[in-house]
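Exercise 7. Predict the joint structure of the components listed below.
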Amino acid sequence: MYRSHVLVCGGTGCTSSGSPKIIDLLKDEVKKAGLKDEVAVVQTGCHGLCALGPIVVVYPEATFYSLVKPEDVPEIVSEHLLKGRIVNRLVYKENDQDEIIKSINETDFYKKQYRIALRNCGVINPENIDEYIAMNGYEALGKVLTEYTPDQVIQIILDSGLRGRGGGGFPTGLKWKLAKGNDADQKYVCCNADEGDPGAFMDRSVLEGDPHVVLEAMAIAGYAIGASQGYIYVRAEYPIAVQRLKLAIDQAREYGLLGKNIFNSGFDFDIDLRLGAGAFVCGEETALMTSIEGNRGEPRPRPPFPAQKGLFEKPTILNNVETYANIPQIILNGAEWFASMGTEKSKGTKVFALGGKIQNTGLVEIPMGTTLREVVEEIGGGIPGGKKFKAAQTGGPSGGCIPAEHFDIPIDYDNLISIGSMMGSGGLIVMDEDNCMVDIAKFFLQFTVDESCGKCTPCRIGTKRLYELLDKITKGNGTLEDLDRLEQLCYYIKENALCGLGQTAPNPVLSTLRYFKDEYIAHVTDKKCPAGVCKALLSYTIDPDKCKGCTLCARICPNSAIQGKVKEAHVIDQSKCIKCGACMEKCRFGAISKR
Amino acid sequence: MGVVKKVPFSGTQEQKTALLQVIREHMHDKGALMPIMQKAQEIYGYLPIEVQTIISDEMNVPLEKIYGIATFYSQFSLYPKGKYRVSVCLGTACYVKGSGDIFNKLKEILGIDDGECTPDGKFSLDSCRCVGACGLAPVIMINDDVYGKLTVDDVEGILKKYE
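Solution:
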C-alpha cells in the first residue's frame, strides 16, 4: 500500500506541454528521497483542464498543481511528499484573490460537473487493466453474461433513455433492438472513434484515459444483438489513443475478457482496430462502414439501414465512443439511476469540449439541462480580457451559433435543435466580439467544401456555391440579393443532399443569418466588418491628434503606403494600403486604428 | 493545392521486400486494402504511383481503385513530405484564436503553399483539422512535436530549431 499517489496527466494536451518529462523526474526524485515504497507516480488520462497542463494531482489530499515545470518537481517531492507541506505557489487558483487552497473537486471548474463517461479519466492508469477492474471494470459485462438475456439488456438501455452522443441523438436501445431483430449468420458491432468535428476531443480523452470502458461496452452490445466481432474505427491522427487501445485489447484478450467463451458463458467476442485516414465524411455511419470495407469512404443511401445491411452487408450497430462509455454504468446502476438525470427527453450527462475565447479550455461533463450560462461563466470561468460574449458554436460544421439571447437555455438535444443548432459530438467554441460571424460561416463552409465526398451534387456543388457567396460578401462585393440567394440555396441543399454531412452543411450559414443578420447587412450595404476581421473591408487610419510624426510606421510599411514629414501627422494612402496591420502593431502612441 | 515538383521515385529493394511481406500477411483479412496502404505509406513515406502499382499487382485490385482511395483520404500523400512535416491546425478552436495568421506566416517564411515541400526537401507544410489539443490553441505540429499557445511572432524561432 502506498500512502500517497501522484497522478500526472498523460492526455494529449498535457503530453504536448511536457508531462512525460515531469513523470520521469517525479519518479527519479521520489526514488532519491527514499519514498519509492510509499509514493506511487501514476500516468493517467485527461483531467479536463488542458490549458493548464501539465497537471499533477496528489492524493489523498487531492491537491491540484497546474502548469508544473520540470524545475518544480524537486520542490513538490521535498516539500509536499516528504514534509507534507503543500507547495502553495503551484496550486491551481481560480482567481488572483483566491487565498484558500482548494482540492480539485472544490474548484468551480469541477464542482458542477458530474462524471459518468469520464469517471475514470484522470483517475486510473489507462495502460493497466487491473486498475480498470478495481473500478468495477468488466463487472457489467459479467453481470450481463451471467444474469441477463439479450432482450433484458436491450430493455435496460431503452429504459435508461440513452441517446447517441455522436451527433444525431438516436435512442441507443432502439438501434440495438432493430439490429437484434434481424437474423443473420454474422453481425457486427462498430465503434465510431473518428472524431472529425474540429474542436471536439471528448472521444479522444475517453480512449486515452479509459480505453477498457469502450471494449467492455462493445462486448455488452455484441451480446445484446448477437454479434461476435467488433471494429473500432479510430482516427490515425490520435497516436496515443491508438497505442492505448491496442494495449487494452491485448490485455483484455489475455484475461479472457475478449475472445472465446467469455466468463464461461459460451459467448465469443473479439475486437479489431481500423485506422481512419482523414476524411470527415467517415463520421457518417454508412461512409464509415464503406471505409472499413476498404473503399473510398462515400455514404450510401438509406434504407437499407445498417441494422439490416451494414458492414459487409450484415446487420451492424454503430455507436460513438462517449455513448459506449455510459453503457457499463447504466448496467451496474440501473436504468432508473441514469434516467433520473437530465431533462425529459435527454437523459444523463454530456461531455463538452470547451474551446475558443474562454478562460478554462478543456473537457467538462455536465448533466443534460445545465444552462449555457453556467457552462460558460461558472465552469468555463468566462471570457478572457474582459471581452463580451457573442456566441457559442455547437455541433461543429453541422451545427450553429447560439447568441447571447439564448444564454439561459438548458442544454439538451431538442432545445439546441429548436434554436437552430445541434448537440453534435460536443464541441463548444466560445466567440467574443472580435469574431466575425460571416467569417465563421465561411470558415465552416470551406471545411465542408474540402470534406464533401463528391458523391451527390447538392453537397458537392451546393456547398461550393455557398462558399463563393460568403467569400464575395466578406470581400465587400455582396448585395442584398445575395443574402436571399444564400438562404434559398441553404434550404435546397438541406432537402436534397444524400447524407448527414450535406444536409447539415448549411446550418452554420442559416444560424448566423438568423441571429447575426445585422452583421451580414453591414458587410453588404456599409461594406464594413463590425468585428474588424474581414481584411478587404478594413481601413486603417491615423488619428492626427495622436500621431507624433515619429515616422516609424512609414518606415515599416511594406508597401510604402504611409506618407508624412517628421514631427507631423502621417496619412495612409488607402489605395496603396494592403491592410497587413504592421503599422498599427508598431505604433507606440496608439494613433492608428482599424475599422 | 499548388504545383508540386515531381521527385523521381527512389524506392529501395528493402522497402519493396517489406511491402511484399505486409501484403502477404494481410491480403486475406477483411477490408485489408486500407491498412495495407497505410503500412505502405509508413514504409515509403508517401504513396507514389509506383508503390500503388505494386499493391495493385500483388493484390489483384485495379490500380484506379487504389488511386481512388489514395486521393480520397487526406492522410495519403502522392508526393514526398519534407524531413520536417509542419502541420498547422485549422480546427475551429485554433481558428478563432488566430491559427489562420500563423498559417500565412509559415507560408511566407517557407515560401511554399499548403501541401507543398521546400525544394531542399527539408520542410513540408500542411493544414490539418484538429489534433485534439484544443486547450493549447492555436497549435502547430512539427513531426510529432506539438507547439501550442502560439503567436505569429513565435513562428520564426520555432522553425530555427529545425535548421
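Discussion. Chain B has a mean pLDDT of 90.
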